[in-house]
Design brief:
GO terms for molecular function: DNA binding; endonuclease activity. By secondary structure, the chain is an alpha/beta fold. Helices cover 62% and strands 14% of the residues. The chain folds into two domains: 87 residues; 112 residues, Dna-directed Rna Polymerases I, Ii, And Iii 27 Kd Polypeptide, Chain: A, domain 1 (3-Layer(aba) Sandwich). It has a five-stranded mixed beta sheet, sandwiched between helices. A two-stranded parallel ribbon has the order 4-6. β2 and β3 form a beta hairpin. α2 runs antiparallel to α3 and α4 crosses α8.
Length: 222
C-alpha cells in the first residue's frame, strides 16, 4: 500500500522547518570540491611563475576545497540527524491519545508552526519574518494582522497584556490582533479582547486543532 503522506497540521508543525533535502548538502559538497579543485589546478601554472593574483586564487581554492565541502557535509549529517530525531518525536506525539498531553509536549516553535499552518487554511499568509521577538505579521486579503504568541505559556492572561499587543500592532500598521494564550483567560481579559477586537486563541481551541489533526491522521491509510 502507498505510504501515508505527512499532511496533517501536527506533522507539518513538527517537520515544516526541514525544507531543504538533507542529500542536497552532500550534492553541494561534491560540486564545491570538484569546482574548487578545478580552479586550483587552473591557477597552479600561473602561481608557479609568480603571478600574485593566481597565487592568491590557488591558495583560496586549496583551502576552500577542504573547508567548504567539509562544512556542507557536516550540515547534511546534522540535518539528517535532526530529521530522524523529529520523526521519532512525531511518532511519540502521535502515540499519545490525549490532545492535552500533546499540547504540553509541543515546543514554542512547534506550537507557532501549528497555529500558522492552521491560520493558512483560513487565508492568512505571512507578510515578513518575526518582528519584535515572537510576533508575526500576517495578511488576509487587504487586512494585516499581528499574531502574538509570547503569552502562550503564561498561567493567566491580563487585560494589560492585550493593550500592549494592540500598541505593537499599531506600530506595524496592523488592523487586528490574534493573541495566543494557553493559560487561564478570565472574564476581564475576554471582555477587553471583545472591546478591542482581539481574536483569542486559547487552550481549548488549540486542543481542538490537535484533536482534529490526530483524527485526520487516524483516517489516512498507511
Amino acid at each position: 500500500m502507498p505510504r501515508r503522506q505527512s499532511s496533517t497540521p501536527l506533522e507539518q508543525a513538527v517537520l515544516v522547518r526541514h525544507l531543504v533535502p538533507w542529500w542536497l548538502y552532500l550534492l553541494l559538497a561534491a560540486f564545491c570540491w570538484l569546482g574548487l579543485r578545478a580552479i586550483a589546478q587552473w591557477a597552479l601554472p600561473s602561481s608557479r611563475i609568480g603571478d600574485g593574483s593566481a597565487t592568491l586564487l590557488h591558495s583560496f581554492a586549496l583551502v576552500g576545497q577542504v573547508l567548504l565541502p567539509l562544512a556542507l557535509l557536516c550540515a547534511g549529517v546534522a540535518d539528517l540527524f535532526n530529521r530522524v530525531s523529529w520523526r521519532r518525536r512525531l511518532d511519540r506525539l502521535r502515540q499519545e491519545r490525549a490532545a492535552d498531553s500533546l499540547l504540553e509536549q509541543l515546543s514554542w516553535q512547534e506550537m507557532r508552526d501549528l497555529i500558522e499552518l492552521t491560520l493558512e487554511t483560513e487565508g492568512y499568509e505571512p507578510v515578513i519574518g518575526s518582528i519584535s521577538g515572537s510576533d508575526l505579521l500576517l495578511q488576509r486579503q487587504e487586512q494585516k494582522v499581528l499574531l502574538v504568541t509570547e503569552h502562550w505559556r503564561d498561567p493567566v492572561l491580563e487585560p494589560g497584556q492585550l493593550e500592549r499587543a494592540v500598541d505593537r500592532a499599531d506600530r506595524v500598521d496592523a488592523e487586528a490582533v490574534i493573541l495566543v494564550c494557553g493559560g487561564r483567560i478570565g472574564t476581564p481579559a475576554r471582555a477587553a479582547a471583545r472591546r478591542r477586537g482581539i481574536r483569542l486563541i486559547d487552550r481549548g481551541l488549540m486542543l481542538q486543532w490537535l484533536s482534529q489533526s490526530e483524527t485526520t491522521a487516524g483516517r489516512q491509510p498507511d
